[in-house]
Amino acid sequence: MNALISQLINLFASVILILAFAMLSQRRIVNLIHLYTWQGLAVVGSTTVVAYVTHQHHLFYSAGLTFLLKVILIPYFLHRLINRLNVRWDIETLFNIPTLMIIGIVLVVFAFNVALPISKFSDTIAHGTLGIALACILLSFLMMITRAKAVPQVIGFLAMENALFLAATSATYGMPMVVELGIALDVLVGILILGVFMFQIREQFDSLDIRHLEKLKED
Amino acid sequence: MSLSGFLSQLLAIVLSLLLAPLLMGWVNQWRCWLQNRSGPGVLQPYRMLHKLFHKESVVAEHASSLFRMAPYIVFGCMVLACAIIPTLSTDLPLSPAADAIALVGLFAVARVFISLAAMDIGTAFGTLGARREMLIGFLAEPALLSVLFTASLISNSTALTSIVEYLAHKDFAIYPSLAFAGIAFTMVSFAENARVPVDNPATHLELTMIHEALILEYSGRHLALIEWASALKLFAYSCMGLALFFPWGIAEAEAPLALIFAIPALVFKLAIGGFLLALIETLSAKMRIFRVPEFLASAFLLAVIGMLVHFLLGA
Question: Structure pTM?
Answer without folding.
Answer: 0.87
